[in-house]
Every structure is written in structure tokens, then in C-alpha cells.
Amino acid sequence: MNHPGPEQPADVVARLRATFRTGRTKPVEWRTAQLHRLRALLTENGPDLEAALHADLGKSAAEAQRTEIGFTVREIDHTLDHLADWLRPEPAPVPAHLGADATAWTQYDPLGVVLVVAPWNYPAQLLLAPVVGALAAGNAVVAKPSELAPATSSVLARLLPRYLDTEAVAVVEGGVPETTALLAERFDHVFYTGNGTVGRIVMRAAAEHLTPVTLELGGKSPAFVDRDVDLDVVAARLAGGKFLNAGQTCVAPDYVLTDPETAAALEPALVRAVEGLYGTDPARSAEYARIVNERHYDRLTGLLDSGRVVVGGTGDRSEKYIAPTVLADVAPEAPVMREEIFGPILPIVTVSGPDEAIDFVNDRDKPLALYVFSESDATRERFAAETSSGGLGHGLPLAHLTVSDLPFGGVGESGMGNYHGRYSIETFSHRKAVLKKP
Ligand code: NAD
């Protein structure tokens, strides 16, 4: 189709809706074909995607593969392996008054035309993993990459139409004006990943059309470190989860809660852990990412004097580099504790023990993730029972979201709804109740 100038959001949505109405996206064969094409896009364009992710965030090729490209390929493979099973209608027992010949079941219907709005921190994964679910559920999709990761946005806008069915999948690039224009249209679902301020804008716009939303938001994800753990192991895992992508990970441990004696021993362990990951000069490590832009660089450097610097504390604005930083003696009301850090700064806040840590968590917004490092079953169970968070990780940060059979999403301020694997099918389908009486 030839268009004079870029297609307007209303025209994109109308075109995809017309496609959806033909039934083209519904057969499972179309869905799996699209997933295979998306898989081919990812495996055939590794170097282009890696270069874009390096340009936007300084991600190494290995990290780009592990956390973006390979991650999405695994999500596709898991979906292809199980899709037929997930889509199978589920029979429901029928009450006697309807007669023995009546049957009932639920069937998964695609919703229609859905919008996926992605953030900049994992700009490929967080656009494409929801798209996998939307396509697997038989929808037409408008994908809006983040303008703050311009290289990735541009490479995906170029490649997606080459691989996927352009009558059913469209990419709209742009920032606030373009997203605002899209949100004025009627979608059948809006899937947004980003911050709570924009999450509210998305939900308000969707409310005009009674469109359901999934909001994948963030917040401060705490990590409690008990006194009975092996601190070198814990420090290595904390640092690995915190400093991946220079701390710009929605489920990164935001801050550490521990008692004063454990804190004193954890500090040198974290110094060793940072050195183990990135050497003595992380600025020279090819494995260490950069801050997305100057605005976030300035915001983050403004947080560096919120405590005593244990390691790091330095930066280079021209390189958008901030050293992996650990801050100790951080007061609960310090600036670094007032907002989601979303950068390579790990504050340690001391509490008397698990009781106070649980209160500390419950006094604040429900986090996207909570991490508990404890050898005690009783303590682990207490955190599980007495706190609320999107996900809970015992002994290992971030990893829960790589388990394809677990739902990924927040609760309260950290979001609503979830996805990954079969939960994406739930999110992007309507469960239709069907009764049949001969
Ligand atoms: P961002 O600035 O890239 O914004 C996300 C999207 O919202 C973009 O596509 C952008 O164009 C759009 N947008 C921005 N302002 C808008 C407006 N006024 N109206 C309409 N659309 C608008 O990303 P961000 O919000 O800076 O991302 C970081 C946040 O995302 C953090 O809070 C992080 O924790 C959260 N996050 C959550 C998850 C998750 O899965 N739960 C994953 C990654 C990031």
C-alpha cells in the first residue's frame, strides 16, 4: 500500500482492524507462522540488533543476546512448544437443571487490535515479548518502541515490517505526541511498560474507550540480607542483579536492608563483587553499560551524596558513565530512598532485623520485586506471607522473570496484570463462556 507521508495513527488502527475483521489473524497457523518469522528476525539480524543496543545503552553483545535477543527467542520457543495446549478449550461441569446433554466450556478469543508501548531500558525485549503474546493470542498489533532508545527503535521499525504480516502488525515510532495520538484511538487492549506517571495517562486514555490495560511499572525493589548468609555469594548475586545494564532494570534490587553488623561485613564483600564483575576500573570494562541519556545521568549523580561511598561514586558525563556504586549509612529519608533509582547506585539501609525490614517494606509502595537472602525457612516464609510484591525472589535477584511459566507483573504502584508464556495468552485473549444445548 502506498501512503502519501506517514500513515496517521487513526489510519493504522483502522487498517489493522479491517484485517482483524477478515479473521486472518485467528488461525493458529497464522500465529505460529508470525512467531517463526519473528524468531528469524532475531536470529538473522543479531549484529544489527546488538549494534543498536550498544549505541543506545552501551550493552555488550553478550548482554544484548542474554537479556534481549536470546530472551525473546526463548519466549517464542516456549510459546511455540505449548500454544496448542494453552488454546485448548476448557470444559466446565454443567448443572443438572440444564440436562445431561448440555455441555459448557471456555474458549480463548483474540481481543482484536492491541497496542504495545515499550520503554527504553530493554528496548527490544520489552517491545517484542509482549508482541509475542499478542500474536500468539491471535491479535493485530501496533508496536510503539521507546524514542529514548532511538537506534533500537529505528532498527525494529525497519525489520518488523520485513518479517511480519504488515496487514496485521504495524510499528509506530515517536515520543509523547505520537503516543498521545495512538492512545486517542480505540484499542482492544493497551499494554504499557514504563513509569507510573505515564501509566496513569495511559489508563485515563484507555478508560475513554473502556479498554483494558496491562501496566508494567517499576518502583523500589528491596533486598533483605539476613545475618546467616554467605555474604560473598550474596554480594556477587546482588551486584550482578544491580549493575546489569548499569542498574537500569525494572526488577533490579533497588536498595539493601540489613542489620548493622551484617552491613559492615557486606560492604567489603560488595567491593570484591564489583571488582569480580568489572575489574578495578569498570569504565574500561566492555561488559558495563552506560546511562541512557544526560537527563538520567544528572538525576543519578544528584543521588550520589545520599550516603558514605563504599565503592564507585564517580562518573563521566561525556561518556554517560556512572561507576557501580555502593552507599552505606543511608537514611531512610535520604534522596536516594525517595524515588526508584534506576541506575548503578546501591544504598544500604540498616534495620534491626526481619521484623523491621518487613515493616519497612509494608510502609512503602508495593514493589515490583522483593528479594530475600536468608538461610531460615521461617524468615523466608514470613516475607512471603507478610509482604506483597509483584514477584518474590529467594536467594537470587532478577531470575524469576526468566522462568517462562511464572507470570511477570506488578501489584499496586508496581503495576497491574502480567504476562510471559501462558499468562500472555490470558492477557491478550478474552475467555469466552460457551454453553451448548442440543
Ligand atoms: P520511557 O520514557 O521510554 O516511556 C515509556 C513509553 O511511554 C515510551 O514509549 C514513551 O514514548 C511513552 N511516553 C512517555 N511519556 C508519555 C506521555 N506523556 N504520554 C504518553 N506516552 C508517553 O520509559 P520510562 O518510563 O522512563 O521507563 C522506566 C520505568 O519503567 C521505570 O520506572 C521502570 O521500573 C519501569 N519498567 C518496568 C518494567 C516492567 O516490566 N514492569 C520494565 C522496564 C521498565
TrEMBL record:
GO molecular function: aldehyde dehydrogenase (NAD+) activity
GO BP annotations listed: aldehyde metabolic process
Source superkingdom: Bacteria
Pfam family, one: Aldedh
UniProt cross-references to Gene3D superfamilies, sorted A to Z: Aldehyde Dehydrogenase, Chain A, domain 1 (3.40.605.10), Aldehyde Dehydrogenase, Chain A, domain 2 (3.40.309.10)
InterPro entries per record: Ald_DH/histidinol_DH, Ald_DH_C, Ald_DH_CS_CYS, Ald_DH_CS_GLU, Ald_DH_N, Aldehyde_DH_dom, Aldehyde_DH_NAD(P)
Keywords assigned: NAD, Oxidoreductase
Keyword Glycoprotein on entry: no
List of catalytic residues: 216, 250
All copies of domain Aldehyde dehydrogenase, residue ranges: 11-434
Segments passing through the bilayer: none
Coiled-coil parts of chain: none
GO annotation, cellular component aspect: cytoplasm
Homology family: Belongs to the aldehyde dehydrogenase family.
This protein's name: Aldehyde dehydrogenase
Organism: Streptomyces pactum
